[in-house]
Write a structure and sequence with these properties.
This is Dinitrogenase iron-molybdenum cofactor biosynthesis domain-containing protein. The chain has about 130 residues and is an alpha/beta fold. Helices cover about 20% and strands about 25% of the residues. Strands 3-2-1-4-6-7 form a 6-stranded mixed beta sheet. The N and C termini lie far apart (about 30 Å).
């Protein structure tokens, strides 16, 4: 089972990205990973980077993120990918991976759903990539 987390940098101690649709990178890991792999979306966004399709192709089963629009949630769930939102997220990827692996990360199915921008998949410009935070 692979898990994806939107992050701001392609390193293990990266800060978490505030929103799925504007994340420059996605960290990909499984339960036995000590180091994540990284998918770089920043350089491909102008070319129509579609993180949902990329995550499907990478056999990701769960996305853990701070915020996500309903359109992205629908696409991921239609592909069989579970969306989870940390109730009290650690600020960095390495801490999130550790808490996730130990089972101590308290996750919700709806606490990070973005509602203030309507029902779309945009990058939420003007909100610094943060939604409901």
């Amino acid at each position: 089972m692979k898990t994806a987390v939107p992050v701001l940098q392609n390193k293990a101690d990266s800060p978490l990205s505030g929103h799925f649709g504007s994340a420059p990178f996605f960290a990909i890991f499984d339960q036995s990973s000590t180091e994540p792999e990284f998918f770089d979306c920043a350089n491909r966004r102008s070319q129509g980077c579609a993180p949902v399709e990329e995550l499907i192709a990478m056999n990701v089963s769960t996305v853990v993120c701070l915020g996500m629009g309903r359109g992205a949630i629908r696409k991921l769930e239609a592909a069989g990918i579970t969306c989870r939102f940390p109730l009290q997220a650690p600020g960095r990827l390495d801490a999130l991976m550790s808490a996730y692996a130990s089972g101590s990360l308290n996750l919700s199915t709806d606490s990070g759903v973005c509602t203030e921008h309507g029902d779309h998949d945009g990058d939420h410009q003007g909100h610094a990539g943060h939604c409901r935070h």
